[in-house]
Specification:
This protein is mainly beta. The protein is built from one helix and 15 strands. The structure holds magnesium ion. Magnesium ion binds near residues 116, 117, 127, 128 and 225.
Length: about 240
Amino acid sequence: MIGMLALLLMAQTQQTQQWPQHSMDRPRPPVVNPGPERPPAPAPSDAVVLFDGSNLSQWRAQDSTAAKWIVKDGYVEVKPRTGMLVSARGFGDVQLHIEWRTPTPPEGESQERGNSGVFLMGIYELQVLDSYQNDTYPDGQAGAIYGENPPLVNATRPPGQWQAYDVIFHRPHFKADGSVERPARMTVFLNGVLIQDNFELVGPTANQARPPYKMHPDKLPLKLQDHGNPIRYRNIWVRELE
Ligand code: MG
């Protein structure tokens, strides 16, 4: 029994390694209907609320000036070409809740349709994309650890509907000499459906590159990506786990 389990684990590991980064030949994750759109999930009492729909006091622009994204009707929308939205505070290990909505009617295809991203510690991207009937490379679709691991399933809702990520993130640990003691790990639910199961990141996420880990502080700001598309976010809160 244990032997079989070990073989299965080996087969799984080999499967994740056999596909080149951004491979279009890779099988697409099965589509799962997560059920109807839900109202915002209330923040628990010990959560740090980063965005409650009213203002961007917890956020900055990349150059530390005032945040430039648009706040309206309880959401914040990417203002294209103003750069990433950066949390004023830094975080390490967290439980993160964040809701997002891609534009309707959808525009563009593949990576150009509803692209944004949630960057844990500003370095490790959980992809945001309109992946509802929009084909792209699996390690770049919604719920992918960008360029590293596709989601287990595609549990996205149609564009224009609110979706939610619930993330458990453990930061990497470094030895004094800068080498990696423990890689970062991410577990993610999309719309209540498990899509990343304690995935061990191989390094910072990147496009057409696999950069190695580089030593960094234990806490760094959360960043949301401006990829030129007017993605909306709402109800963002974190629980610190360290
Ligand atoms: Mg992105």
